[in-house]
């Protein structure tokens, strides 16, 4: 939408995989259980005050820890702005308060669950912990929540100048309730699928549920950055041709062709309804094509996991074997393209440069 | 920077449907608080609420959707009715032909419907009519439905920062226009009364059973309300080029964070002070330029103390007229920022400031008091509108003649 580059100085993810950096990354690969992924807990006490942590939901702990670790990795103690995207925020707290309210007939309710159910609760905590009094924003728009946060960061850097450090994050959790509710809309496969075989099971409805938190420190300055987001596009109610055209449009706008792309990260999920959205992958015959939803599952802000993975690929200058769907012939990784979708009719296209 | 103007608005609140009814109620000091008729709650007859005087069916009729209410929640209906007023004042072809953003805000999405069906939602294998409401639990549901209904594209976004949500939507829209991402932006928010929110605030013990008393020593808490409000923003030159009436200028704004506590504001008002100061700086104005402050003024113990101290400190010897209109509408949460932005515009247009209803006793910690009567024929040049939310999310907007 706009062209201001976002230089990524650090990335940190809590996900169903070993992605936090305290153990070998993506090794071993953790499989889903019963078509559902659960994020690997980290030592949250290393990042959160022990008194506060007792009443915190898992989502709060995940998002605050990922945020604080990301700031540490970037060597930034106080970000100039905090911008997040989430599909469902602290869904667990919201469900907890809602069920208590129904069961207890609106009497004697615990306010903690209500307070923490606010979508921007992680933002408030992160601001408090990092003493960041700057711009603070939370987007809650289904599958494009993180993308809107990135767009906002582009606007902000244009306004404030490039030397700002912006903390960007995404967070979503899949609770047992959510899994049951969305099963009624065919979000998940009826047959149990082994996550490593997700892409072969692409003739039925549904996918595997997932969750996670991913945070990034971005700036307008190149120094100390691993890679940059050069372009970001959102498509509503897409058709396969629209997606294909938009991909080529993005490349052309950046003076690139498909040849310049070295790795494509695709959000294929094994759901038959969306396989055709990835027809554009046919245009990338000599590039490495990698998947990520067999590692993180499906949720509104999987783009956070994808962006973390892209950052990891640039920093290692290699693509993890466990993600590769098609092995390319490139020796160097200069450009990575992320093509991702969410079930509720959105696609995003992100171009990164190393 | 080119000036951003407000060239159309739409509003639905407990004061009524549309600008005319809201203006009349504000000028005549008629509060919209009453015991709810539409909200089903065991507490319905305990709490005065700012409920909108329409049933869902009545709202659906107003927008011609009475035959097709599939998955439509009260949150979305409030939004559609308010947007219809805004859209009625502009050429819809213009909006179809040129890029527009819908920046919407909500705190709990379609919770008003979700809470009626939640046990069905989570019962494994259970199917039924309730399935139509599953996706309404997303805050973005009303945004997507409204964008489709009115044909708004290419950009839509939903913001949720608690009680400052739609004030943030206004800021986001202005910035998208300034940087040329879209030519126009429709910005605002919607929230429907629901048991979830009423019980949530009640569990925090800050809901007043009687009419709320903002900035009063005897205040106890807030009254909840519902509604929707939207502002059409565009560049001054674009509004002029199409011969549009300019309702107000968005002179400046600021968003900053308290970084003090998950829900409570810093007691000395440091966060509110910083936000108001930054908004003045952004608008290139001095404190004495502000004619009226439409305060956040929820009538909770914490907010009014912090906000009052901040106003007192920032405006010092020259504290302008200030009042909270929450006792008119109730606290409409994600809609409050936009509804009160529209009240600020009404203040500029009518050259009037609105009564802080139910005020009797000055607060001990403040030397300032709100305006207790609606005053007409007052010179109003610049109005500041404050919205402060959980998570320390503070926003100040400044509208100018």
TrEMBL record, chain A:
Listed name of the protein: Beta-ketoacyl synthase
UniProt source species: Taibaiella soli
Pfam families: Ketoacyl-synt_2
Domain Beta-ketoacyl synthase-like N-terminal: 45-179
GO molecular function: acyltransferase activity
InterPro entries reported for this sequence: Ketoacyl_synth_N (IPR014030), Thiolase-like (IPR016039)
Automatic annotation (TrEMBL), chain B:
Residue span, Ketosynthase family 3 (KS3) domain: 1-401
PANTHER family: BETA-KETOACYL SYNTHASE (PTHR11712:SF320), POLYKETIDE SYNTHASE-RELATED (PTHR11712)
Residues in coiled coil: none
Official protein name in the record: Beta-ketoacyl-[acyl-carrier-protein] synthase family protein
UniProt source species: Taibaiella soli
Signal peptide stretch: none
A Pfam family matched in the record: ketoacyl-synt
Keywords: Transferase
Keyword Transferase in record: yes
Organism domain of life: Bacteria
Family: Belongs to the thiolase-like superfamily. Beta-ketoacyl-ACP synthases family.
Family annotation (CDD domains): KAS_I_II
InterPro entries from the UniProt entry: Beta-ketoacyl_synthase, Ketoacyl_synth_C, Ketoacyl_synth_N, PKS_Beta-ketoAc_synthase_dom, Thiolase-like
Record-level GO cellular component terms: cytosol
């Amino acid at each position: 939408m706009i062209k201001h580059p976002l230089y990524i100085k650090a990335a940190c993810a809590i996900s169903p995989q070993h992605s936090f950096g305290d153990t070998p990354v993506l090794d071993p690969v953790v499989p889903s259980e019963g078509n559902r992924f659960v994020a690997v807990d980290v030592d949250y006490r290393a990042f959160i005050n022990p008194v506060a942590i007792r009443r915190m939901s898992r989502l709060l702990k995940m998002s605050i820890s990922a945020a604080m670790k990301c700031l540490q990795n970037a060597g930034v103690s106080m970000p100039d702005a905090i911008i997040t995207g989430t599909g469902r925020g602290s869904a667990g707290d919201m469900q907890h308060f809602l069920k208590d309210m129904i069961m207890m007939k609106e009497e004697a309710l615990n306010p903690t669950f209500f307070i923490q159910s606010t979508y921007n609760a992680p933002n408030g905590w992160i601001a408090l912990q990092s003493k960041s009094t700057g711009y603070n924003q939370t987007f809650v728009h289904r599958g494009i929540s993180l993308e809107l946060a990135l767009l906002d960061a582009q606007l902000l850097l244009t306004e404030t100048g490039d030397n700002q450090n912006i903390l960007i994050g995404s967070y979503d959790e899949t609770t047992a309730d959510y899994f049951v509710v969305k099963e009624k809309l065919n979000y998940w496969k009826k047959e149990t699928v082994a996550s490593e075989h997700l892409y072969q099971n692409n003739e039925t409805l549904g996918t595997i549920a997932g969750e996670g938190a991913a945070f990034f420190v971005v700036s307008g300055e190149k120094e100390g950055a691993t890679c940059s987001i050069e372009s970001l596009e959102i498509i509503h109610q897409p058709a396969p041709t629209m997606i294909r055209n938009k991909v080529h449009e993005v490349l052309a706008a950046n003076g690139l062709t498909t040849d310049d792309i070295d790795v494509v990260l695709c959000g294929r999920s094994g759901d038959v309804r969306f396989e055709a959205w990835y027809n554009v992958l046919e245009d990338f015959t000599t590039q490495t094509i990698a998947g990520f939803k067999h590692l993180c599952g499906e949720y509104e802000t999987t783009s956070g996991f994808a962006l973390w993975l892209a950052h990891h690929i640039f920093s290692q200058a290699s693509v993890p074997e466990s993600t590769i769907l098609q092995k390319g012939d490139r020796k160097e990784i200069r450009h990575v393209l992320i093509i991702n979708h969410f079930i509720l009719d959105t696609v995003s296209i992100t171009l990164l440069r190393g | 920077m080119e000036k951003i103007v407000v060239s159309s608005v739409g509003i639905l609140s407990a004061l009524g449907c549309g600008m005319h009814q809201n203006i009349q109620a504000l000028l005549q000091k008629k509060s919209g608080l009453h015991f709810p008729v539409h909200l089903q709650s065991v507490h319905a007859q305990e709490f005065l609420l700012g409920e909108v005087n329409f049933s869902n069916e009545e709202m659906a009729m107003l927008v011609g959707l009475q035959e097709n209410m599939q998955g439509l929640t009260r949150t979305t209906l409030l939004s559609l009715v308010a947007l219809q007023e805004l859209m009625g004042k502009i050429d819809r072809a213009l909006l179809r032909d040129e890029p527009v953003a819908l920046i919407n805000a909500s705190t709990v999405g379609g919770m008003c419907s979700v809470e009626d069906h939640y046990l069905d939602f989570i019962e494994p294998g259970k199917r039924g009519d309730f399935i139509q409401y599953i996706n309404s639990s997303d805050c973005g549901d009303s945004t997507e439905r409204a964008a489709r209904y009115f044909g708004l594209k290419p950009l839509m976004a939903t913001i949720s920062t608690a009680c400052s949500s739609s004030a943030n939507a206004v800021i986001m829209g202005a910035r998208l226009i300034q940087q040329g991402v879209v030519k126009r932006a429709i910005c605002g928010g919607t929230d429907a009364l629901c048991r979830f929110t009423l019980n949530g605030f009640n569990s925090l013990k800050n809901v007043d059973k009687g009419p709320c008393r903002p900035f009063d020593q005897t205040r106890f808490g807030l009254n909840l309300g519902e509604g929707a409000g939207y502002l059409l923003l565009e560049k001054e030159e674009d509004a002029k080029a199409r011969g549009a009436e300019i309702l107000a200028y968005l002179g400046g704004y600021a968003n900053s964070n308290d970084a003090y506590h998950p829900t409570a504001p810093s007691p000395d008002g440091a966060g509110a002070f910083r936000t108001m100061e930054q908004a003045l700086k952004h608008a290139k104005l001095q404190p004495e330029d502000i004619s009226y402050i439409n305060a956040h003024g929820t009538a909770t113990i914490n907010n009014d103390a912090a906000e009052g101290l901040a106003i007192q400190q920032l405006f010092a010897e020259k504290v302008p007229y200030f009042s909270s209109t929450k006792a008119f509408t109730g606290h409409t949460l994600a809609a409050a920022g936009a509804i009160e932005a529209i009240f600020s515009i009404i203040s500029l247009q009518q050259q009037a400031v609105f009564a802080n209803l139910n005020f009797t006793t000055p607060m001990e910690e403040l030397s300032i008091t709100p305006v207790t009567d609606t005053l007409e024929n007052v010179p109003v040049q610049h109005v500041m509108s404050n919205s402060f939310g959980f998570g320390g999310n503070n926003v100040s907007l400044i509208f100018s003649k």
